[in-house]
Amino acid sequence: MSGSSVKASKGIAGMILAAVIGVPLFVYLLIKLFTSGSGVDITRSTMTTEAVSARLQPVGSIKIVDGGPPGSKSGKAVYEAVCVSCHGTGLAGAPKFADAGAWGARISKGFETLWTHAIKGFNAMPVKGGAADLTDDEVKRAVAYMANAGGAKFEEPKVEGAAADGAVDPATKGKEIYDSVCMACHAAGLAGAPKFGDKAAWAPRLKDGVDSAIAIATKGLNAMPPKGGYSGSDAEFTAAAQYLINSSK
Ligand code: HEC
Ligand code: HEC
């Protein structure tokens, strides 16, 4: 074979290859062009708001879990996870949430009678509202939360980890606040924030003591907003700051 005929046969092979791959591809693209419209059909069931938001849910989210360790659920969290199913609408004669008329006579029985009934059951009110895994204190907190919404002034039993003097435990509540608020800046050191666990960044700030650094942070400092933008109590903010500062020790 001469050189030019090798070239020619290579050229033919190339054309055949282009035809084998190119023609079906061209036809496929042509069909797509005339049939697919915008490409996303919003009437398809997979694109409904419900379907999309369901896919955006974090994997394994369970409503009753409230972030903290067992026994640490607030009255509001317990109410929203358990009690609301009856007390939200007044099902089966349950005193309705925030209905002062329905709660008035019950409140006058006193906090202790009410939480005893909620823990042990009372007529159609099931033991612990049917949630046996709740601790007694969690049920008491939910009773206080509901009764207070109906006009009482009961005090929710403190969340475990909170000391008697109202101080808040840095390792539990403090961490929870850090994770939800402070982390946004202090994890990566955004806007010059001293980084979590960074000894060198924290040392100069702690030279006048931890309390002084926390007092400064409570008021705000340059890009650090007052209390880091946290809207809860000073005691809770202090716990978060202690958790953050402890990481650098
Ligand atoms: C399955 C429905 C149901 C659930 C869930 C439920 N309750 Fe009740 N609850 C009732 C009913 C019904 C009554 C009224 C009972 C009566 O007075 O005969 C009631 C009454 C009460 C009372 C008033 C007791 C009294 O002495 O008057 C309290 C307090 C209470 N519930 C607390 C709770 C708490 C706290 C929860 C959640 C942990 C909860 N309930 C969940 C049905 C429910
Ligand atoms: C919007 C970003 C941002 C958030 C959110 C934030 N911080 Fe800060 N924080 C900063 C910055 C920036 C600094 C450094 C300010 C400076 O020195 O100019 C700082 C400094 C601090 C200091 C040291 C104060 C001192 O005396 O030097 C503490 C303590 C602190 N933050 C605690 C917290 C806690 C606790 C939270 C959460 C409740 C929080 N911060 C949330 C940005 C933030």
Automatic annotation (TrEMBL):
Membrane-spanning residues: 12-31
A GO term for molecular function: electron transfer activity
One Pfam family matching this protein: Cytochrome_CBB3
InterPro entries, sorted: Cyt_c-like_dom (IPR009056), Cyt_c-like_dom_sf (IPR036909), Cyt_CIE (IPR002323)
Keywords assigned by UniProt, alphabetized: Electron transport, Heme, Iron, Membrane, Metal-binding, Transmembrane, Transmembrane helix, Transport
Cytochrome c domain residues: 70-150, 169-248
Name this protein carries in UniProt: Cytochrome c5
Transport as UniProt keyword: yes
